[in-house]
Amino acid sequence: MTLNIGTPYIPPKVAxxxxxxxxxxxxxxxxxxxxxxxxxxxxxxxxxxxxxxxMCDPLFPERTVTFFQSINNEREEDAIHESWLDxxxxxxxxxxxxxxxxxxxxxxxxxxxxxxxxxxxxGRFWKAGFFGCGDMSRVESLLRILPGIGRKAARGYGAxxxxxxxxxxxxxxxMREGKPMRPIPEKLWSSLGGTPLxxxxxxxxxxxxxxxxxxxxxVTPGGGRLSW
Length: 228
What we know:
By secondary structure, the protein is α+β, with helices and mostly antiparallel strands. The protein has 2 domains: 2-61 and 120-227, no CATH class; 65-117, no CATH class. The chain has 5 helices and 14 strands. The chain has helices spanning 18-29, 87-90, 97-102, 136-143, 186-191; strands spanning 2-5, 44-45, 48-49, 55-56, 65-72, 111-117, 127-129, 160-164, 175-176, 179-180, 184-185, 200-203, 215-219, 226-227. The strands form 6 sheets. The protein has a 3-stranded antiparallel sheet with strand order 7-1-8, with no helix packed on it. Mean pLDDT is 76; it is low at 68-95, 103-113 and 223-228. It comes from Acidithiobacillus ferrivorans. This is CRISPR-associated protein.
C-alpha cells in the first residue's frame, strides 16, 4: 500500500509501522474506546500485527523550521490574558503572542518552548509504502481518517493526499527476502525461519500506554527506515 504525501514530511524518532498509524486512526474514529487495538484490521501472530515499517525512497534534508510548542503557566493565579492568545495559530491554546512575534523563547511564568525540526520537501519525499495483511479495505478507510503522518501532522505536515492499495502474492509485512520488515521478538523471528540477527529493545506489539513500557528484545529493520 502507498500513501501519497502532499506536504513536507517531518520524520519521527522511530519510523512508523502500519499498525501504529491504524491505532492512531482508530483513536480518532472511536475516541471513547480505551483500547484501540481491537479496531486494527490486521492479522496478528503472537500479538504482533502484520503491518510493516514505513518504506520510502532516500531522503534529503530541505530546511529547518522552528515551532513554538507551548507556554508554561506555573501558578493558577497567574492567569493568561486573552490578548495574548492568537487562535489563528493555536486554536485556543494558551500562548504569549508578544513573545511569538518577537521570536523570544521566554523565561519565567509565561515561557514559550521552541523546537526545531527538519522536514523533507514534497519534491524529495512524496510517497510512503507499507506491507500489510488483513482487511485492506478497512485499512484504507482508516488511513483516510488520518490528517497526515510524521511529526506536526496536525499542523499540515506529512498530509496524506491519497491512499493506494495494491494486492501482492504473499505476505511481506513481517519478513521480506529474509529481512525483518518491522520489530519482531526473537522467539517469533525464529519461528518464522529468520536467521540470527542483532537484537535491540523495541516495541513489537501495539498496546495502549507509553511505548517504553512494552519494549522487548527484537530483530529490527536495518537503519531507521526501509528502502522501497
